[in-house]
Amino acid sequence: MSSSAAVPALRSGRVAWQLTSTLWVGGVWMLHFVLLPALERFGLAQLLIDDIAGFMRPLMAAFAAVCALLQIVIVWAAVGTRWWRDLRGQLLVVVLVAAGAFFALAWLSEGEQTPYWQVFCYLVLAFAGLGLVLQPRPDEAGR
């Protein structure tokens, strides 16, 4: 691959990394720590808030998993086969495991209210995303 072809590839990876990080981490945090508490403060019925949370949390967990897969590809392209030794790769694996556990728990507790462990998995997504955002981009020379 020539150096002129590598520059647009690095730039597109940089843009994809920043965009996916902003969208999924910001969305997960915004839903749990801003939107749902604001709806409670606004005075909506708790059943309505639970329905909104029951619809939005799985949507955000699935979106986080898809974005994490894309980010794993970006880390793999930047770091190579040792992507799983990199902290960013490890945090992305945590995100995928937490999203998988979120949906496994939803499947196991079909018909019940959102279990404690499902909310815990969602919070693991949120804090793993925060740790990921605090890391340098894979293309930065610091790593």
From TrEMBL:
Presence of keyword Transmembrane: yes
The keyword Transmembrane is annotated on this UniProt entry: yes
Annotated transmembrane regions: 21-39, 59-79, 91-109, 115-134
UniProt keyword list: Membrane, Transmembrane, Transmembrane helix
Name the record gives this protein: DUF4149 domain-containing protein
Source organism of the structure: marine sediment metagenome
